[in-house]
Amino acid sequence: MADQFVGDPITPVAPTTPEDADLAALTAKSVPERLAYWRAQMDRCIRCYACRNACPLCVCRDHCIAQSREPHWMTQEDTATEKFFFQLVHAMHLAGRCTECGECQRACPMGIPILTLKKHLNGTIRDLFDYQAGVDPQAIPPLLQFKVEEANINERGW
Amino acid sequence: MATVKYISHEKLPQWLAALAAERRLLVPVASGDGSVVFRPFDPARRPVLDGDATAPPKAAIFPACQELFRYEQTKDPENPEHTTMQLLPDPKAVPTVVFGARPCGVRGFLIFDRVYLGQKFPDPYYAAAREATVFVTMACKTVENTCFCHWVGGGPSDPAGSDVLCTPVDGGYLVEAVSDKGAPLLANPLLEDGEAKVAEADAVKGRRPRGPGRRPGHRECPGGPAGRLRRCGLLARHVGKMHQLRGLHLPVPDLLLFHHHRRTIRTFRPTPSLLGCLHALPVHHGGVGTQSPADQGPPPENRVGHKFSYYPSLHEGLVACCGCGRCIKSCPVSVDIREIVQQAVARAKA
Amino acid sequence: MTNPKNPYLPEVATILETVQETHNIKTFRLRFDNEEAMQAFSFEPGQVGQLSCFGVGESTFVINSPPTRMDYLQFSVMRAGEVTTRLHGLTAGDKIGVRAPLGNHFPYESMKGKDIVFVGGGIGMAPLRTLFLFMLDNRADYGAITLLYGAKSPADMAFGAELPEWLARKDVNTVLTIDREAEGWEHRVGLIPNVLTELAPKPENAVAITCGPPIMIKFTLEALKKLGFGDEQIVTTLEKRMKCGVGICGRCNIGTSYVCQDGPVYTYAQLKKLPNEL
How many angstroms separate the CA of residue A122 from the nearest CA in chain B? Predict the structure, then answer.
């Protein structure tokens, strides 16, 4: 997508490490292992919110759950639980919109692999709605449309 | 003459294990994607001692969240209308050794001491933790281009605030007691006599850091750099950068200084939050008179103001910055606090 | 008294009674559970306290009653957010925490022998009430006392139960005003700064103490200056989000001035020197 394209298009080069190696490693773990992993990761989060601030698709602005008093979603406790809760909500808010720009992870001063969470949710969106954000300007995002019968959600057959 | 000891790299893990046997020992360890944080000693995790940790050892004395007291309410069974409320504070601290902090990180506590161990209302929790903590500091062999400890009164081998100072030499570290609290740590037989290494250590300590530009001399700025910042709109450019970061306000933990959670009252201290410069949204309270909720002006102003202007005005010119450079290293939009202060001083002179 | 050993520890108090002043202002009268602490407690008019709603949080409020009337400590709370809403839910018999006295106080010593002009708007009457009653209890020390109290409407006037007594007193000139005409209202109608200008108190040997919403303060200050009041003759009290209340955390700072230490009472002369963050 461009109004003006400068120069010649570059042929994409396959990265040496598989792009989703982090996601693959995570999915290989059992659910309790994953929880332990995230508790360990979020332990060093300092709640600077660089991840939130760097995200181009974060839109709650002054009403972010991280600082809302009414309703009071999160406490200021320095626990992995509170910090992980924020990451989960953030990822959910971005589901179907995140383009995996990676700024959240790049901005994190403590090197926490939060992009993995968003990649996981994007995978779920792909599976459910055959949709990937930022790829096709003509595709309608799942939350902006309503289908009486979803192609991949078999409500009656289950 | 003060005792000077030496510990080799090979013997260091044993010394750490010995220290950990008696007290909580915090050491810098690798924690994922290059970050290094202070954690309780684990013999299976090798401490990272060749560079400053990503986060400082602030939590050893000044945790981001701390229980101030518990409260219990009991009803009198004979007279249910009558309740008693009991407050149960516990300012006791865990005896701790912080191993492997840098002079800048330890110097930070001297800055806090002036406030938290002040004359009128000393903080008993801080005082207890301070008393119970021993700092074994690692002098810096190399200096990064974001370091500016020498601008704010410190230095790569500054012992101020440390209890023991270790200087890297060939094969190990020179170990010197700096305070009475630190001296007993040198008694461990794993440490050998260090006389032979003194000259080499002095050479390491003598290296002057080459920071960019001239030391700014904040005293040259009457009314403080913060005053200049406001008047000349200097911060507009820096705030602009922050707005590239979508300029969302950050909840600085000290906003909810007293958080009531179930039956404990906790305090939330300012974390070494790099974007803590983007201050919190005002919390709406009623109260004395009324005033616009627009509290402290543009947030980065208040952070720079506190560190380089207000604190020095209140504390005999001491700058509330240890020059560790973390904020510069980690800022996603390259806001450099040195640039801000230098420009403010330059404009003040102009 | 603020515990010097542990300044973060509140004194546990029990609410004796509450008064619903307006739809969003509620007054609390309380006494410490520890009788010894209550007897030992002293404060100066203008000082504030941090009230703890256990399990919710703390907020700053002026000690609304004067030190000359120590049957209880009074605080008037405007409902504005999470803590104040929960405070409003408390009634007689409930426990509340108090960390007080904090901050500086009205310089009443230097006001002795002078004419006093109180100008209060809405909840701004709360800190003025302390000094007003203190002065009435020491009436001989002060000259002519004028109280100008304004609110949006009669329903927004706090301390309604006491207003008739204040109006009836011959030794003070109490003037009440509301913004717009209201049925049954027998007193003045008009914005506070305008009524102040009409009253035209003389600045010679006088002191003006004002408190209220920012917009009211702004125009009241202008009116006072036009009437000839000097910067040193105008006193106000600031609201600032305090947290520790003891000069440590820096939350309440305006530049180098900590409102919990150098304030909340400031003269206009002092305010002018502070950075423009108000």
Answer: 23
**Identical fold, C11-102 and C108-237:** no
Query: What's domain C11-102's superfamily in CATH?
Result: Translation factors (2.40.30.10)
pLDDT tens string B97-120: 999 999 999 999 999 999 899 878
List all chains that touch chain C, counting a touch as 3 or more CB pairs closer than 8 Å: A, B
Q: Which of A124, A130, A69, A62 is nearest to A91 (CA)?
A: A124
Residue in C with minimal Cα distance to A72: C82
In the block, which residue shows the tokens 């202008």? Answer: C222
pLDDT recorded at residue B218: 41
Closest approach of chain B CAs to the CA of C50, in angstroms?
A: 10
CB contact under 8 A, A112 and B332: no
Distance from CA of C54 to the nearest CA of A (A): 15
Q: Is C232 on the interface with A (CB under 8 A)?
A: no
* Residues of chain B contacting residue C84, judged by C-beta atoms under 8 Å apart: 285-286
Strands (E), B21-101: 24-30, 36-40, 65-75, 83-89, 96-101
- What are the chain A neighbours of B278 within 8 Å (beta carbons)? 53
Q: Which one of 3.30.70.360, 1.10.3720.10, 2.60.120.260, 3.40.50.80 gives the CATH number of domain C108-237?
A: 3.40.50.80
The answer to whether the complex's ipTM is over 0.95 is no
> The whole model's pTM is what?
0.84
List the domain boundaries for chain C. 11-102, 108-237
What is the Cα–Cα distance from B327 to B55, expressed in whole angstroms?
Answer: 10
Q: Is B255 helix (H, G, I), strand (E, B) or coil?
A: helix
Average pLDDT, integer, range C20-36: 96
Question: B-chain residues within 8 Å CB-CB of A67?
Answer: 249, 251, 280-281
pLDDT in tens, B226-255: 444 443 444 444 544 544 433 222 222 222
CA end-to-end span of chain B = 50
Answer whether C116's CB lies under 8 Å from C143's CB: yes
Judge if B45 and B186 occupy the same domain. Answer: yes
